[in-house]
Write a structure and sequence with these properties.
There is one protein chain. The protein is an all-alpha fold. The chain is 84% helix and 0% strand. It has two domains: 1-34; 58-165, Four Helix Bundle (Hemerythrin (Met), subunit A), CATH 1.20.120. The longest helix is centred in the first third of the chain and has 44 residues, at 3-46.
């Protein structure tokens, strides 16, 4: 075989191998990304276990203590306030999830049961109102244990949390009198 032909075969072999490697990497990347999204969706659907909730509370508690410079007394009060209101909020949240699932089933049914859908929507509204009241009471209780400087930090924390979750637009002014 000629030297020129051997060189061409070698070059084309290298090009084919590069294409195969790139397509394999693309497939692996797509599969990993898809699996990550599936697992995240599955975790969202299943909800968090009690162990994860406890871990989440410990992390939140430590973060709040650091961020707000809470004293030992304030930290203990924060923990007790959080335990009371988080259990109430979690209960309402669980009821909201069940209600949303029931409403979704009714809405996707071929024979729409309008009175049932209306009652589920009314229940959803009531539960959202309950949730808002619990969150408002939690924030009011937090306000009572914080100093003025800590309240400012807490408000910034809440506004950042609201922005990240899409509840508060980035250009909205702070609420008066917090």
């Amino acid at each position: 075989m000629k030297k020129l032909t051997k060189t061409r075969i070698l070059i084309w072999s290298v090009i084919v191998l590069i294409i195969i490697n790139l397509s394999s990497l693309g497939t692996i990347w797509f599969h990993n990304r898809h699996m990550h999204d599936s697992r995240r969706f599955q975790r969202h659907q299943e909800g968090f276990s009690q162990e994860k909730r406890t871990h989440s509370h410990r992390s939140r508690s430590a973060m709040m203590k650091r961020t707000l410079d809470l004293t030992t007394v304030q930290a203990g009060t924060y923990d007790s306030i959080w335990n009371v209101y988080s259990s109430r909020i979690r209960t309402v949240d669980d009821q909201l999830k069940k209600n949303r699932q029931a409403l979704s089933m009714v809405m996707s049914d071929n024979n729409l049961n309008t009175p049932l859908a209306d009652s589920l929507i009314d229940e959803q509204t009531r539960l959202m109102s309950d949730m808002n009241h619990h969150v408002l009471n939690l924030n009011a209780a937090m306000r009572e244990i914080l100093t003025d400087k800590q309240r400012e930090k807490y408000l910034l924390f809440l506004r950042g949390l609201g922005r990240r979750r899409g509840f508060i637009p980035n250009d909205s002014p702070p609420p008066p009198g917090f």
